[in-house]
């Protein structure tokens, strides 16, 4: 490489008559960076058509359980995902296979045929944090719907239970103080409609009781 090929930059020398920069005072202290929502997000891949139809269409004694998922400030969580599990009328978990089995000819969920009680449902919350499922009344031997909650900001899913107010004696409910027990019992609204809100944080009278399985 010759001298002409080299790219060099001369370092300027300060001018003796340069005007000093204006003193604007000390730099402001750096504040916290904006918070970012923690994923993952579930609303685009896991929900499916008919996910809240747990009971057969022609079943007579059905109930609708609905409510909202709320954060610690009482604001709705619009992108949560809820799964519900329950025993059948005989008190045992349903053994019908494939409630998510795909029909290859139509692409629909062949296992949810409208006549079989699946014992399982999966629904997302809407923009107001609302969800709804239609199911059979839980049996006396297992008088609740098991609920699994996934939502933004939760690194681990949460487990809880939803009891109807007519539920018989239950060991878990009996072990809780009244304020905590009330967070697991749905409120009867009208006919076969019950409301069950889930609050992720709050005081004893607000935050839903969550369960740990070992």
From TrEMBL:
Domain of life assignment: Bacteria
Keywords: Dioxygenase, Oxidoreductase
Matching InterPro entries: Intradiol_dOase_C, Intradiol_dOase_core, Intradiol_RC_Dioxygenase, Protocat_dOase_a
GO molecular function, one term: protocatechuate 3,4-dioxygenase activity
Biased composition regions of type Low complexity, renumbered to the chain: 9-34
Region (Disordered) location: 1-38, 88-119
Domain annotation Intradiol ring-cleavage dioxygenases: ranges: 62-139
Bias (Basic and acidic residues) ranges: 100-112
SUPFAM superfamilies, per database record: Aromatic compound dioxygenase (SSF49482)
NCBIfam families attached to this UniProt entry: protocat_alph (TIGR02423)
Family statement drawn from the similarity comment of this UniProt entry: Belongs to the intradiol ring-cleavage dioxygenase family.
Protein name: Putative protocatechuate 3,4-dioxygenase alpha subunit
Gene source species: Actinacidiphila reveromycinica
């Amino acid at each position: 490489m010759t001298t002409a090929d080299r790219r060099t930059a001369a370092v300027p020398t300060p001018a003796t008559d340069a005007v000093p920069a204006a003193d604007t005072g000390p730099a402001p202290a750096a504040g916290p960076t904006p918070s970012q929502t923690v994923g993952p997000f579930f609303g685009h891949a896991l929900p499916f058509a008919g996910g809240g139809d747990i009971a057969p269409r022609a079943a007579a004694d059905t109930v609708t359980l609905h409510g909202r998922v709320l954060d610690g400030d009482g604001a709705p969580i619009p992108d949560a995902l809820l799964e519900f599990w329950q025993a059948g009328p005989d008190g045992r978990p349903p053994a019908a296979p494939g409630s998510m089995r795909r029909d290859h000819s139509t692409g629909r969920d062949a296992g949810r045929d409208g006549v079989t009680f699946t014992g399982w449902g999966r629904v997302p919350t809407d923009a107001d944090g609302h969800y709804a499922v239609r199911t059979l009344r839980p049996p006396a031997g297992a008088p609740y719907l098991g609920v699994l909650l996934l939502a933004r900001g939760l690194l681990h899913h949460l487990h809880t239970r939803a009891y109807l107010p007519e539920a018989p004696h239950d060991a878990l409910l009996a072990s809780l103080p009244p304020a905590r027990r009330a967070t697991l019992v749905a409120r009867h609204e009208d006919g076969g409609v019950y409301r069950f809100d889930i609050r992720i944080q709050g005081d004893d009278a607000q935050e839903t009781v969550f369960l740990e399985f070992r």
